[in-house]
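Bumping my old thread because nobody answered last time. Still need a sequence for this structure:
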């Protein structure tokens, strides 16, 4: 298990470890959206990943880092959806069991998906404190191993493989942007860019209503979210100590977007690219549209994080 930020060798090993369990997802472009944004965007489509989100990478790397004899009591996590689905499927592939603590009110499509992958769902109150305490109770009862959604170097190494694939496939990128919730994906992106192309500009998009990453980097210490009231349900978590330490070293800026800007960006991608993305996934594109001067004329890698949407509750 990794006890310090992943080296490039760690990330390459993670990529080898998970390659037969994940997809190398396509990179798509849209001349129409490029014209709107005033830059050239390369969308890494993790909405086409197994379980419909990038989270499959980190969960698979973390679970398969344990030897078979260490997996007997299963794995536990807390998640609003995508991480839970990833842990459920990765545990199943590893011949083990998954216990997934989910907040009441989590999208029904995500709860049903966790069950469909063989995970046992335990519902809790929709607060971070409740998620953590309920998860600890499950671990005490079952002896399961905690798979943290983001504050875990093995998770970060797995998530980093998405940016590794993007940088290796698309030449001469000027910038990368991902959304930030707990920061696992953004940390992985930061490290890979640092190792492969230190000149890349690195940005993260974040909803204004859950701007803990913005506040934490500005104040130089961890600041937790006061609310979780955003349509971007995958970005409600506050960043952790491990992700904070990586992000503060490497990120150029955190770009905040409003709820309406997220919905507008999501709708544009549905309409113009004909692909399904969830609200969290639209945050980086919303940030590009809001900050044309930063991205003008540049070649920008954009990580589309997931496409697990409750079709009965679309915001447009």
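Sorry it took so long. Here it is:
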């Amino acid at each position: 298990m990794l006890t310090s930020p992943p080296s490039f060798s760690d990330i390459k090993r993670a990529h080898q470890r998970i390659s037969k369990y994940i997809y190398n997802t396509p990179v798509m472009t849209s001349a129409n959206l490029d014209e709107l944004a005033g830059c050239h965007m390369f969308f890494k489509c993790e909405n086409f990943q197994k379980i419909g989100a990038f989270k499959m990478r980190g969960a698979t790397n973390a679970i398969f880092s344990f030897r078979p004899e260490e997996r007997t009591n299963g794995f536990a996590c807390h998640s609003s959806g995508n991480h839970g689905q990833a842990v459920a499927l990765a545990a199943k592939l590893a011949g083990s069991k998954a216990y997934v603590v989910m907040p009441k009110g989590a999208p029904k499509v995500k709860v049903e998906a966790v069950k469909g992958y063989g995970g046992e769902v335990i519902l809790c109150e929709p607060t971070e404190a409740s998620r953590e305490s309920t998860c600890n109770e499950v671990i005490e009862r079952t002896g399961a191993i905690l798979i943290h959604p983001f504050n875990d170097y093995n998770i970060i190494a797995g998530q980093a493989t998405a940016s590794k694939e993007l940088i290796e496939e698309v030449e001469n990128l000027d910038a990368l942007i991902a959304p930030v919730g707990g920061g696992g994906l953004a940390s992985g992106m930061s490290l890979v860019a640092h190792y492969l192309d230190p000149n890349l500009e690195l940005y993260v998009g974040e909803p204004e209503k859950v701007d803990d990453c913005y506040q934490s980097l500005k104040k130089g210490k961890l600041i937790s979210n006061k609310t979780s009231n955003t349509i971007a349900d995958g970005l409600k978590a506050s960043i952790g100590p491990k992700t904070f330490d990586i992000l503060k070293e490497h990120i150029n800026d955190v770009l905040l977007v409003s709820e309406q800007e997220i919905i507008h960006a999501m709708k544009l991608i549905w309409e113009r690219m004909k692909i399904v993305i969830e609200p969290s996934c639209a945050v980086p594109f919303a940030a590009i549209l809001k900050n044309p001067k930063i991205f003008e004329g540049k070649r920008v890698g954009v990580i589309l994080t997931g496409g697990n949407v409750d079709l009965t509750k679309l915001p447009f």
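The CA atoms of residues 27 and 44 lie 5 Å apart. Let me know if any region looks off to you.
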